[in-house]
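REVIEWER CHECKLIST
Item 1: Sequence provided? yes
Item 2: Single chain? yes
Item 3: Sequence as submitted:
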Amino acid sequence: MYLQLQQTAGDLQFGKWFALARTGEWQELEVALADLTRDDGKGEGPPAAEEVLRTLRVFVQDGDKPTLEMDWFEISRRVS
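Item 4: Structure as written out by the authors:
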């Protein structure tokens, strides 16, 4: 599964790959922005604190008919 955050389509894209849970199992993910890497070929590293990310995309690749069920989803900003 690939989690991607974008500022706008094709600009400032950051993401991270995750292993899929087995069929029938639930998986809880907590992702810090610092763990994301730039994936648009225009640089490296995580998003800067001042960057605004507006779009969340989730890609699932697993065989011919991949599925994804989300029970709960939350985005929060943590100030360190």
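Item 5: Key structural point noted by reviewer: The chain has a mean pLDDT of 82.
Item 6: Recommendation: ____
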